[in-house]
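Structure ticket #2291
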Amino acid sequence: MDLSLYWGEFLTIAAVHLLAVASPGPDFAIVLKHSINYGRRLAMITSIGVGAAILLHVTYSLLGIGLLLKTNPMVFKIFSYLAAAYLVYIAIGAIRSPAPNTSDGVKNSTDLKMISDKKAFAVGFLTNGLNPKATLFFLSVFAVAVSADTPFGVKLVYGLYLAVATGIWFCFLSYLLSTRKVRAFIGQYSHWFDRVMGAVLLILAAKLVLA
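Resolution: structure written out below.
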């Protein structure tokens, strides 16, 4: 199999994915929140969870389940409601975020109960896995940008790349957002910032329900 035949497809997918992953959404909101509240390590674990969830989207796209979501409005609506409920759950936690109690404004374990590695990963995975924006993206990419004649193995490579690229992108954001200076600057008003992000997540949830 001559892999050079598929470079055009790959570059198209990579370019579209870069634009999609860089746009603000629930994934960005939760990684930002964890970077500020829990620090770099847990934020990166959350980012790995976000990247791993891409494999979920790839799996149902390759298996044809994505076609069911695309052609059955009721199934997609139920999926959107589940996603909206999860966003509301996260938003409520953000809105109820307490004010920092440190001299530099950065929260520590005495201000906010730390979460486990497993929960950090799960939050990242569920946030992306239940993101209809990601669902629509993969339905579009695999239906339009990828030829029906492209071998299954090549499509799988595309999916693995998208998962790794997503994880690396959010890990990079986690690194930047969890540096001492950035955390100290944002942390002074972190409770208000959390509340704004909570409001944004509520708006996203409302759009899912009303769309």
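Closing remark: The mean pLDDT is 79.
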